[in-house]
Amino acid sequence: MERQIRIGSRESILAVRQAQIVKEELLKASPGLEIEIVTMKTTGDRILDKSLEKIGGKGLFVKELDYALLEGKIDLAVHSLKDMPMEIPEMLPILALTRREDPRDVMVLEPGKKSLIPGDIIGSSSKRRTLQAGKLYPGCIFKNIRGNVQTRLQKLEQEEYNATILAAAGLRRLGMENCITRIFSIDEMIPSAGQGILAVQGRKGEKIPGIESVACPDSIWAAKAERTFVRTLDGGCTSPVAAFAKVCGNEIFLRGLYYHEAAGEYVTGSISGDTTRGEALAEELANILKGKYE
Ligand SMILES: NCc1[nH]cc(CCC(=O)O)c1CC(=O)O
């Protein structure tokens, strides 16, 4: 069976590495495939001087790849699930969610630095991260930082930042875990919905041989619960939300964070139950947390 598959990816080193991971898994299942990785710049990668919230949010990282899929320039697109908008076009379904890489967030300090002291500057543009890290480092100052993983690490060397918070998954995929100085537990810092999971998107009705072997059922359950939690709270727009679900056999555990804009504070909570009820549980938890402010 000979078939050519083009996998579309953003241009960043991490995005290409992620596309390669999917390529390798596909090839294991279907050695006859001929797979090429096609990279493209997305609007989110082009505009680096504005915060994502101001220029239109998550969709900016996937739009160009959506068009390339629709136009048949690529056959699959690989994205970090956490970068995907809540609503996914019906024509471009997610065909597989990969086995989850380490979902936790980590601290990376500037070269030579051993620990953070009051007054140090932590670079992060994620309100989810700065809110939670603010409790762990009350004396530190948080400043926006943008750009891909490499750019951010360069900014630690060249600019005023003393530290930054990144996803363990990205650093591990790049083989850069040696720069991690602290791994935050799930309780210390609830991750972003989908963090650590890759989504493989394709065209509706089109079969990709071997795609089943890229998919991980536990990731589907976790993603459904986490994304339902986010959707129930705010539709995934601009306010910070965090959700992490873990499947253990027939049971799913979900932990979530809800930020109340007017109160300027957040609450967290957990829920667990039958794995197949993940979405109902997620809605329930979201409503319980929201209810604390009503
Ligand atoms: N927002 C960028 C982004 N999107 C996904 C990851 C990490 C990889 C993953 O979650 O699978 C990162 C980098 C980071 O947050 O440190």
UniProtKB/TrEMBL annotation:
Required cofactor names: dipyrromethane
Single GO MF descriptor: hydroxymethylbilane synthase activity
SUPFAM superfamilies noted in UniProt: Periplasmic binding protein-like II, Porphobilinogen deaminase (hydroxymethylbilane synthase), C-terminal domain
InterPro entries per the UniProt record, alphabetical: HemC, Porphobilin_deaminase_cofac_BS, Porphobilin_deaminase_N, Porphobilinogen_deaminase_C, Porphobilinogen_deaminase_C_sf
CDD domains: PBP2_HMBS
Ranges for domain Porphobilinogen deaminase C-terminal: 223-289
Catalytically driven reaction(s): 4 porphobilinogen + H2O = hydroxymethylbilane + 4 NH4(+)
EC number, as in UniProt: 2.5.1.61
Listed PANTHER family: PORPHOBILINOGEN DEAMINASE
Misc: The porphobilinogen subunits are added to the dipyrromethane group.
Family under the similarity heading: Belongs to the HMBS family.
Record's protein name: Porphobilinogen deaminase
